[in-house]
């Protein structure tokens, strides 16, 4: 009678006796692993989709912008974009720029790589002849290629602030159209005489360095200089030519033993 009751209620003898069929644990584990992998695969797929969208947008607009990411590698696919005018990678932990950056030479006007972990730039960056703006601020650059600026005749703005530069390459003299040069918060102990030959320069910031002297020839060649910030250095004086032979309007020198 007991058996009839269990069968009539859809319960097997083994279940009625408290025993249940064994499940395949390996199959169960595999299923769980597969279920866990699916969200990760979906996330990767979403990231790839976002990256592709960003590249597609850059192909249409000529602007590639990436900000606030964690320790990325240089996006090599950007080097395949024809007509890229601006490359902006900021606060992404970027640690290196490849020599192939020169592939962007025909069109790149603005290279903005602030707030990363760059220790230098490749020699090939000198080939970016169309560059008008270079922003390498807030990195860990201690040295730049000596010929970096040799081919940058169109450069108008250079922001090299908040790095570890001890020397500015003399090739800066090739930047005949340079209007703004920010060298603040570095470790400069001297300026190359070539800086004094930048006839188009309007704004020069050399604050927070270790400069004890600017150089007597500094001034006559700076025919358009309007603002000089030289605060917090070791300057004991300023070149006479800076005051008499340049049109400088604002000079900031606080924080020096003058």
From TrEMBL:
The record ties this protein, via InterPro entries, to: Leu-rich_rpt (IPR001611), Leu-rich_rpt_typical-subtyp (IPR003591), LRR_dom_sf (IPR032675), LRR_domain-containing (IPR050216)
The terms describing its cellular component in GO are: cytoplasm
Pfam families noted in UniProt: LRR_8
Among SUPFAM superfamilies, the record links this protein to: L domain-like (SSF52058)
Name the Gene3D superfamilies on file: Ribonuclease Inhibitor
| Keywords, ordered alphabetically | Leucine-rich repeat, Repeat
Return the Polar residues bias intervals.
18-34
Q: Where is this region: Disordered?
A: 18-42
| Keyword Repeat in annotation | yes
Q: Does the keyword Repeat apply?
A: yes
What is the name attached to this protein's record?
A: Uncharacterized protein
Name its species. Cryptomonas curvata
Q: Provide the organism lineage as a comma list.
A: Eukaryota, Cryptophyceae, Cryptomonadales, Cryptomonadaceae, Cryptomonas
């Amino acid at each position: 009678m007991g058996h009839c009751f269990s069968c009539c209620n859809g319960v097997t003898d083994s279940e009625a006796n408290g025993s249940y069929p064994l499940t395949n644990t390996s199959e169960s584990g595999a299923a769980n692993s597969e279920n866990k992998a699916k969200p990760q695969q979906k996330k990767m797929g979403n990231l790839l989709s976002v990256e592709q969208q960003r590249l597609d947008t850059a192909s249409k607009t000529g602007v590639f912008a990436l900000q606030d990411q964690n320790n990325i590698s240089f996006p090599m696919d950007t080097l395949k974009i024809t007509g890229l005018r601006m490359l902006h990678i900021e606060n992404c932990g970027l640690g290196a720029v490849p020599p192939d950056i020169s592939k962007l030479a025909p069109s790149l006007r603005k290279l903005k790589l602030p707030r990363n972990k760059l220790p230098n730039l490749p020699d090939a960056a000198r080939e970016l002849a169309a560059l008008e703006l270079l922003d390498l601020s807030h990195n860990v650059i201690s040295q730049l290629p000596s010929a970096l600026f040799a081919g940058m005749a169109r450069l108008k703005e250079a922001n090299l602030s908040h790095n570890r530069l001890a020397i500015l390459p003399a090739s800066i003299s090739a930047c005949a159209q340079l209007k703004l040069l920010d060298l603040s918060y570095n470790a400069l102990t001297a300026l190359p005489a070539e800086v004094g030959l930048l006839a188009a320069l309007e704004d020069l910031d050399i604050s927070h360095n270790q400069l004890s002297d600017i150089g007597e020839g500094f001034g006559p060649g700076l025919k358009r200089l309007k603002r000089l910030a030289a605060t917090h250095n070791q300057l004991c004086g300023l070149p006479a030519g800076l005051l008499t032979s340049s049109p400088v309007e604002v000079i900031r020198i606080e924080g020096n033993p003058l």
